[in-house]
Amino acid sequence: MSIYLNKDSKIIVQGITGGMGAKHTALMLDAGSNIVGGVNARKAGTTVTHTKDGAEVQLPVFGTVKEAMAETGADVSVVFVPPAFTKDACVEAIDAGIGLLVVITEGVPVQDTAEVWSYLQGKHTRMIGPNCPGIITPGESLAGITPHTIAGKGPVGLVSKSGTLTYQMMYELSDYGFSTAIGIGGDPVIGTTHIDALEAFENDPETKAIVMIGEIGGDAEERAAAYIKEHVTKPVVGYVAGFTAPEGKTMGHAGAIVSGSSGTAEAKKEALEAAGVKVGKTPSETAELMREILKSL
């Protein structure tokens, strides 16, 4: 089992002919992903050539997401388009009824993301991102940019605001492996939250324990802590990036700003620990806490 993505997922790439789209299409194919085509209105009717399992594959390029879905049965789209066009790409995919929309693009204007988020309400589509590494179910499928060689399949579910910390935690726990690892992105407005992923992991029989990585700014981790207390029965360990961040200074991720005591790493740590979550001060310490839990399961 897994959450949101598995070996049967049929993936299209919006922006498949661009530099980033082409590069990561190749890497997703290497990871075993079932990529069935791409979208670029200006190059509709052409094909792009890639290699999968040592054999050459021709992937069709369609003019619209709707057309791509009708022709291929695609149920996942990964978006590699420039920030200025990301909103339109998302709305097009949502209108077409795509099941999972993974938006990798960083630098998307917050107002655009907010409008897409509002447009999503009541629709069929789940969006992950923007500004995220996407989602990987090791050994089955990758929709995004996570290096698939870090870790294999296992009992740990991982949800993280940070891309690089997703990769580090997968490396730290590669001896156990992951059911699914999902990078939700660090922007102030995102499609899938910690709580969404926690709920999915709680309901996934193959996920035995969960690692949750947050960062300073906002109150997402505090809300996740309240949710864990009420609804999550599986063991959860946490890490909050930014213990050394200076107060009042905006850090790397757009959502990572601390105001007073609100949004600090310490406040988030306290909220999580009050909900029964063990919180590490470093990624390695967090991995060790998880390792202790897994040994006892």
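(ticket continues) Second input and output from the same batch:
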Amino acid sequence: MKVLLSKIYGLIVSLRVFLYQKGILRKHRLKHPVISVGNLTVGGTGKTPLVGFLAQILKKAGYQPVILSRGYKRSNKNAVLLVSDVREVFCGPEECGDEPYLLARKLEGVPVVVGNSRYQAGRLLEDRYSNLIYLLDDGYQHIQLKRNLNILILDATDPFGGHHLLPAGRLREPTKAIARADAIVITRSHMFSETENLEEQIRRWNQRVPISYFHHDVTALYDARTGTRFQPRDFLGSSVIALAAIGSPHVFLHDLEHYQMKISDRFIFRDHHPFSQPELDRVLKRLEEVQARAVVTTEKDAVRLKKLDFQEGQIFVLQIEPQPEDLQEYKKEFLNEVKFLPEAQ
């Protein structure tokens, strides 16, 4: 049954793309350049950290990045919601969604706007800043908005979602959609060795697209209550409880084990799960039972724990930053692409 539904889903997705490509369905254009970052699969591929990474590069180079996001599972259903401007954050994670909130908190001076229509979201600020560039978070399938640079992310550990479309697999659209990419980023490349085979599959659909390889570095662990920071080496050999509600929890668990933390127990929930106090109390009770050093969670999960009751030293957040193989070379190539992005006519 799932295979049949996947075929029907694939026909609908392909028809939608065809109608936009032929101009039968109308695309919208913003006044300033749009860089889209997205993927082919559901679940985590590291796109939100990459959006933050690119925003920081643009900001340091003198541009004014503005992040446009859907705001998945946000409680505020306004058509357009300003999450932050260059000075302050205006809403919490429940109101705007955990990923937009996380970006707004981490990126000083980078506005974040959410809306089901990223075109309407972008128009909110298009006359407010000079040298503006939009970063479209999770935008590969949001083809009703024209973009100047289309960055596709593939997770090296599962780049093609089992090669099946939803609901049989994890693909949002067929792999031929790789043809639309102007650049490809392979994330979590440190967890994968068969790069030659992966590139062959990419080249089947896109002969000349530049491919960059990124790994993820654990840069710190910080106390979820106080923000006190520790180095990863401070947790070497420590017994911990793993807590996560993300798209790829196996990657999070791998990172804990890579830094030689001993996982005494794990609590894994569905992506974007809204934690309740009774659920957290069970986790903290288990922490006491096994006498582990702490609960360790992800940055995205930490924003959903913020309003719950726990004590200093009980929960620590694993801070991860994306890094290309050659940071300076990647910055140079990316900014060279950005320099020639045209403003709307």
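Agent notes: The mean pLDDT is 94. Residues 217-322 form a domain with the Rossmann fold fold (CATH 3.40.50). Closing as not reproducible unless the customer responds.
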